[in-house]
Specification:
Elements: H1 10-23, E1 37-50, E2 56-64, E3 70-76, H2 80-86, E4 94-102, E5 105-115, E6 133-140, E7 145-151, E8 157-161, H3 164-174, E9 178-181, H4 188-196, H5 201-210, H6 214-218, E10 230-232, H7 242-249, H8 268-291, H9 293-305, H10 317-324, H11 351-357, E11 374-377, E12 383-387, E13 390-394, E14 398-409, H12 412-419, H13 433-446, E15 452-455, E16 458-461, H14 462-480, H15 490-511, E17 515-521, E18 524-529, H16 532-549, E19 553-565, E20 568-572, E21 578-581, H17 586-589, H18 595-606, H19 611-617, E22 626-629, E23 636-641, E24 646-649, E25 652-657, E26 665-672, E27 682-684, E28 687-691, E29 700-702, H20 718-733, H21 737-750
Helix pairs in contact: 1-9, 4-5, 7-8, 9-14, 10-14, 12-15, 13-14, 18-19, 18-20, 19-20, 20-21
Length: 763
């Protein structure tokens, strides 16, 4: 593991991302408002609706055939003269119009009709300025505004401090580029666009930070002008802040020493510190960009497939999915709690499960959502829990050496929505086919063997297209339960989950009596057949069932499993590939915090590598880092040194267990005032102190510099990490863990399975 994470494929993928982006519809000119004067346009939207005051009106949106700019006209029915001119205008009509502006409002006059039945013209995609990928961050003070950009390809810095004209010049030179930041869709983009329009940057910044009213922000500047293209890394943050991502990746996480609330201009020294801090955040953004570039490219690819424009890349995955499916928000339908009618293809014989789902209306839980909650234990003592997350069951603290199958439904929820007609009912009939088309296209591409796919004239790696299609397929289910999304249809979201649980139940009943269950996890059952004949009978029954319901059922073989519970296990395939599930996997290797413990633990089980030797032989400093964060419910963080002296600490810190207590500290999360934390470890002067690090070492120190620039490996107390592995082994396998694991290793040898190669699973 490198001190600073490296992503060697990122530059190549970044070039492809820029190529895909450049082919998306729209350029900076086409996203500006249409200018006053005469224009040759095509009507792209024409809808009758009621105004906010309940008056009949017509909304007509038109696009210029010259530069792709749009204008919208609002025609009130009670204004008969205007209404007569517009009432028969429909989508596809080509018109010559005259556009004027009065007090900022557009007045559109149709001069004459040119033709009917025209296709909607796309916005032009050709860049009119320099086009590259710019990572950026901004820092706004009451009297100072700093904008820092870095060209990903040339590594050139652009630092603009308190110079509006210089920023305008830079924007006009690069505005067809991709501007990529962290939370920029909500914060940086709006502040920058408003500032470019001459608005007060500090006022914009404070409003965004302190107000929950997004509409108030958009009233502060003209949101139709000064387009800014790009993507927001916060939308795929995996629950972590930029500082946490920076910490995991090994880079400097020191916070600025400059007070954002000071009521005076910054000194030259403070400006230098602010620039250094902002540049470090841009470097952190760049590193997170490289780490997540596969997802960004997949998202851009799906936008290209559906002829979306460059502005769509700033939408969340859920909103992007709603748009490509054409879904529009509707009121919750009256059938929300109606009984579930069992599909004729399913057969449920287990009485307790059938009673939980069938022949009665459903009740809403305390959160106002539909859910079935059931814990079912069969006569063999195997327990399955049914809930909003699906079906879950597992033999606790379980080790098995020997071949066994895991039968796994391919994309259970997406295919259930398609095969059981449970897509959101907000999708219009003329677009409902898109979801099934995507499912088929993904499966065809997955098994095609082709390395490259052609998307609208752009060649992208096939795996990128597959991941791009996977994005809306997997996002669709969650979006159906998101109240403010166009796909919101809580009844059908519940039915998808319930149908999936009943499919898993039907599957369970076909296996039961012929095998011992190891685990059941949302879309898969793992089991040990009682005999070869039973194994064959199970396969025949399951394949027939899968064919009947129109879903794909895979069969993956494993040779061993080490299982704490249903959410935490390690399984090894016959070819030595290791599947890691749960906290020990540190979120798929993304959360590099105490990684040495996870790596030593996993290698001890599957490779037989002594965990003490693994830790003592390891000199990769980043593996030993521990990342801690103080949540928003606390007021601040303090550190206490070995002499008992307190000083303020950062919200996010990188710490290491150390042998020498001289520079050791103890972190505390602090609450002040009347609402003291009753769970706190200490109380002092109307302040509650909660220890800031769970399972903390006896001695630890803060090292927020980039890995390699602060603490050294010789200072690290490796015994602490060894103890942590042993605590985890006991948690998984009980007090006799050593005896159980050694017996399993012996059994693996007897069966002729070779231990897998020692490697870093968290890297």
């Amino acid at each position: 593991m490198k001190n600073i994470a490296e992503f060697k494929k990122a530059p190549e993928l970044a070039k492809k991302l820029l190529e895909v982006f450049s082919n998306l519809k729209g350029n900076s000119r086409s996203l500006d408002p249409m200018r006053a004067g005469q224009h040759d346009v095509v009507v792209i939207e024409s809808n009758k609706k009621l105004s906010a005051k309940g008056k009949e009106m017509k909304v007509v949106k038109m696009r210029s055939l010259e530069d792709g700019r749009d204008v919208t006209s609002y025609i009130m029915k009670f204004r008969k003269y205007d209404w007569d001119k517009w009432k028969n205008i429909e989508v596809g009509d080509r018109l010559l119009i005259d556009l004027k502006f009065s007090n900022g409002f557009a007045t559109v006059k149709p001069i004459r009709s040119i033709s009917k039945g025209n296709e909607t013209p796309f916005k032009p995609s050709e860049p009119l300025t320099k086009q590259t990928i710019l990572l950026f961050d901004i820092e706004i003070f009451k009297h100072d505004s700093l904008f820092v950009f870095r060209d990903y390809f040339t590594k050139e810095w652009f630092i603009i401090n308190n110079d509006l004209e210089e920023l305008r010049k830079f924007y006009l030179e690069y505005r067809d580029s991709m501007f990529i930041g962290y939370n920029n869709a909500s914060y940086d983009n709006n502040v920058m666009r408003g500032y470019l329009q001459g608005k007060n940057a500090y006022q914009m910044s404070k409003t965004i930070i302190e107000s929950d009213n997004r509409g108030l922000v958009y009233k502060m500047f003209d949101s139709h002008k000064t387009p800014l293209f790009g993507m927001d890394l916060y939308q795929d943050n995996k629950g972590f802040s930029l500082k946490e991502h920076s910490a995991f990746l090994g880079i400097n996480i020191k916070e600025t020493e400059v007070d954002f609330d000071m009521d005076r201009p910054l000194t030259d020294e403070e400006k230098d510190k602010n620039i250094a801090y902002c540049k470090n955040d841009v470097l952190a953004t760049e590193k997170r960009f490289e780490q997540n570039i596969g997802m960004l490219l997949a998202k851009a690819t799906i936008a290209l497939m559906f002829d979306m424009d460059k502005t769509d890349l700033l939408q969340t995955n859920a909103n992007l999915t709603a748009k490509l499916l054409g879904a529009t928000k509707q009121e919750v339908r009256p059938d929300l709690t109606d009984p579930l009618e069992l599909d004729k293809r399913l057969n449920i014989n287990t009485k307790e499960i059938a009673e939980a789902y069938l022949n009665h209306e459903f009740e809403l839980n305390e959160d106002g959502k539909l859910n079935v909650s059931l814990e079912y234990t069969d006569e063999d003592g195997y327990t399955m829990i049914f809930g909003s997350g699906g079906v879950h069951g597992a033999k606790p603290s379980y080790i098995h050496i020997g071949m066994f199958p895991m039968r796994d439904w391919g994309s259970l929820y997406p295919n259930t929505m398609e095969q059981f007609n449970l897509l959101s009912r907000n999708i219009p009939k003329d677009k409902i086919h898109r979801y099934g088309d995507l499912l088929k296209q993904r499966m065809d591409a997955k098994y095609s063997g082709e390395e490259v796919a052609n998307i609208k004239g752009v060649e992208v790696p096939t795996y990128v297209m597959i991941n791009g299609i996977k994005l809306p397929l997997n996002t669709k289910f969650g979006a159906t339960g998101a109240q403010f999304n166009g796909l919101y249809d809580p009844r059908n979201q519940f039915l998808v989950c319930a149908t999936g649980q009943l499919i898993m139940t039907n599957m369970y009943e076909l296996i039961k009596g012929k095998a011992q269950f190891i685990q059941s996890n949302t879309d898969a059952h793992a089991y040990i057949p009682n005999s070869e004949a039973d194994d064959k009978a199970i396969d025949e029954a399951l394949d027939e069932f899968a064919n009947k319901i129109g879903l794909t059922l895979d069969k993956d073989m494993f040779r061993e499993i080490w299982q704490k519970d249903v959410n935490n296990y390690i399984a090894v395939q016959p070819n030595g590939k290791v599947k890691v599930k749960g906290a020990i996997g540190l979120t798929g290797g993304m959360k590099v915090s105490k990684a040495i413990v996870s790596n030593a633990f996993i290698n001890y089980l599957v490779a037989g590598k002594d965990y003490k030797d693994f830790i003592n032989e390891c000199n990769e400093l980043r593996q030993f880092q521990i990342i801690t964060k103080t949540g928003w419910t606390f007021d601040r963080t303090v550190a206490r040194d070995s002499e008992g002296n307190e000083f303020n600490a950062q919200k996010v810190n990188r710490v290491f267990a150390v042998k020498d207590k001289t520079n050791a500290v103890e972190l505390f999360k602090v609450k002040e005032g009347q609402l003291l934390d009753i769970e706190a470890d200490e109380f002092k002067d109307n302040i509650s102190y909660t220890k800031g690090l769970a399972n903390a070492p006896e001695y630890y120190t803060i090292s927020n510099e980039a890995i390699g620039e602060g603490i050294t490996i010789d200072e690290v107390d490796k015994q602490y990490y060894i103890d942590q592995v042993e605590d985890t082994l006991e948690l998984w396998f009980g007090e006799n863990w050593k005896e159980r694991i050694e017996q399993a290793h012996h059994e693996r040898e007897l069966q002729g399975f070779k231990p897998v190669e020692v490697k870093n699973y968290i890297d």
